[in-house]
Amino acid sequence: MDDLNCGLRYGFICETYAACTNNTFGANCLEKCSPNCGGLNNACDNFNGFCFNGCDDGYLGERCGTPCTKSTFGTNCTEICNINCGGPQHACNNVNGFCLYGCVEGYHGERCDIKSENSPFVFNFLAFIIGYTLGLLVLTCIIVALGPK
Description:
It comes from Elysia crispata. The protein is an alpha+beta fold.
């Protein structure tokens, strides 16, 4: 093979006609495999850069360059963010599913999967009962104080 045609061949280093190494691919092996390629060394095909071992959690595509949408996460983006994640589209981290904008009211935890014991409903209900009881107590005191002597 002559050097003139070598530049047209992807996946080889022209000077030595050797296959790409060190997680590189393409013409003269100048492109790096995606850091999101699965496996221990992020290996990819020396011609097209397609990942040999699939993608790390949170990524899609042959070169693993596409993160999951804001409402999915995990292996092959098959897991759905918790409905209790706050913010638009219940957005969560594409890798671990942790909620990006906190939780909706009444939930907490990194994935908003823990129901709060002291939700606003409980506080409002307790405030109503305490207020109602105090109101009856005050009204009773007034009636007793103003009643017949």
